[in-house]
């Protein structure tokens, strides 16, 4: 330490710069320690309401951010319900409320002075730190292929109901993509949302962007933040009907959200012909919910919901029952893991209603939607950052290049095995093998 204190700032920067022998694990550990040190310094010297500008002119967030624990569950489990099984409050299992599960907290005391660049989503987020791929000299294309290989997709949702005298699959068109955003990216996105929430509370967002109604009963009062357009949920005091309010202005899509859209288009989750131009952020506290509904047709199909903080259930059915305030029952229950993207399209968006029953712990979701061109706000302008995004093309050549890194492949295979099989499934498979041997 004495030797280190004798060095100049430039020497220390050169010592810890990339390429001087630090492994990826040490780089990650160093980054965590520097971030913690910076947080402690700001806590000691700054008030929660101050904003900052760096000497280099880099924009610094004007809100305190919240501390996080990186151990975010990335479960891919889907609830497998019998067609006649209804999800009722009495049937719903109790969620684990262990302190370690509560991984994100919002408080205006932490991480003052964070730069916008701290929240950029990079292809090597969670790769260089966890898998040491950066040391293997992989290109950005190879990194993206590795990340893309970690995404798992479920499309075969089926539940047949009689609707208008016809039997149809009311879940046709639903898709669930898990592993789209890893733990590092989830942390960045959630911290950005907390920043937006704080700005809304301080009146630093446009009037119709942020809404935090009073919680006057169970299930009422979740925080919403709208970007791109103002959607009116019910007939308001001025007599305006539900739908996009074309004469109202809200803030444009934040940079991190545009990066999320680009990721989903690149990874063939969002079609390049239907790129979202608006979104709504829902911030749930314990007990908050979304009642049964079908999304307004001012928004074209499909639309996309990304989940954070805690896994929750979404119910589907042509008829959903309101059991009591915040509690609903329906024939189909699908679990939405954190970091996943749930796509609503077809009958799943237009025939079946859906709802989120009262959540058992804090949850955040972002729903991205594209507005019908005839319903665009009068002052709306297309975002040039969302024009011309091309999907990733997976060719045999790319697959062979991706397979050249043997160590990388081993890590990918292990990740797939860990994410696909839960602990209970592993035990069950082991028993089945042993019974076959006997």
Automatic annotation (TrEMBL):
Pfam families associated with the record: 2OG-FeII_Oxy_2 (PF13532)
Domain Fe2OG dioxygenase positions: 275-372
Compositional bias (Polar residues): 44-56, 68-80
Stretches the record annotates as Disordered: 43-99
A GO biological-process term: mRNA catabolic process
SUPFAM superfamilies assigned to the protein according to its UniProt record, in alphabetical order: Clavaminate synthase-like
InterPro entries per record: AlkB-like, AlkB-like_sf, ALKBH9B/ALKBH10B-like, Oxoglu/Fe-dep_dioxygenase_dom
Record-level Gene Ontology MF annotations: demethylase activity; mRNA binding
Coiled-coil blocks: none
PANTHER family, sorted: HYDROXYPROLINE-RICH GLYCOPROTEIN FAMILY PROTEIN-RELATED, OS06G0138200 PROTEIN
Family the entry assigns: Belongs to the alkB family.
Protein name (database record): Fe2OG dioxygenase domain-containing protein
Organism: Psophocarpus tetragonolobus
Phylogenetic placement of the source organism: Eukaryota, Viridiplantae, Streptophyta, Embryophyta, Tracheophyta
């Amino acid at each position: 330490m004495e030797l280190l204190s004798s060095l100049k700032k430039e020497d220390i920067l050169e010592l810890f710069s990339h390429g001087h022998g630090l492994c990826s694990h040490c780089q990650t550990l160093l980054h965590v320690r520097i971030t913690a040190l910076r947080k402690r310094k700001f806590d000691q010297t700054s008030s929660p309401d101050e904003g900052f500008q760096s000497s280099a002119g880099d924009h610094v967030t004007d809100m305190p951010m919240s501390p996080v624990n990186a151990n975010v569950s990335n479960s891919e489990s889907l609830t497998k319900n019998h067609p006649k099984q209804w999800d009722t409050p009495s049937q719903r299992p109790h969620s684990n409320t262990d302190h370690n599960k509560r991984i994100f907290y919002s408080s205006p005391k932490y991480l003052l002075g964070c730069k916008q660049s701290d929240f950029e989503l990079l292809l090597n987020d969670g790769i260089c730190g966890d898998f040491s791929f950066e040391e293997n000299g992989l290109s950005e294309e190879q990194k993206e292929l590795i990340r893309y290989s970690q995404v798992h997709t479920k499309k075969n949702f089926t539940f047949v109901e009689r609707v208008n005298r016809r039997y149809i699959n009311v879940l046709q068109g639903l898709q669930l993509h898990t592993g789209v955003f890893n733990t590092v990216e989830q942390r960045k996105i959630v911290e950005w949302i907390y920043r937006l929430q704080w700005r809304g509370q301080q009146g630093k967002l446009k009037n119709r962007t942020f809404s935090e109604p009073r919680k006057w009963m169970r299930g009422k009062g979740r925080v919403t933040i709208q970007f791109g357009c103002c959607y009116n949920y019910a007939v308001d005091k001025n007599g305006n009907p539900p739908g996009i309010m074309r004469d109202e202005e809200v803030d444009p899509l934040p940079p991190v959200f545009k990066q999320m859209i680009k990721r989903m288009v690149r990874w063939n989750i969002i079609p390049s012909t239907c790129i979202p131009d608006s979104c709504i952020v829902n911030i749930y506290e314990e007990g908050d919910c979304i009642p049964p509904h079908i999304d307004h047709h001012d928004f074209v199909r499909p639309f996309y919901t990304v989940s954070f903080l805690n896994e929750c259930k979404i119910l589907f059915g042509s008829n959903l029952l309101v059991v009591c305030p915040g509690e609903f029952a329906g024939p189909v229950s699908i679990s939405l893991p954190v970091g996943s993207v749930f796509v609503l399209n077809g009958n799943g968006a237009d025939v079946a209603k859906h709802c989120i029953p009262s959540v058992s712990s804090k949850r955040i979701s972002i729903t991205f939607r594209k507005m019908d061109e005839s319903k665009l706000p009068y002052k709306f302008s297309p975002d040039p950052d969302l024009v011309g995004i091309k999907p990733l093309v997976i060719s045999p050549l790319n697959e062979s290049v991706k397979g050249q890194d043997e160590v990388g492949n081993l890590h990918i295979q292990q990740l797939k095995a860990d994410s696909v099989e839960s602990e209970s499934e592993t035990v069950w498979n082991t028993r089945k093998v042993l019974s076959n041997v006997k």
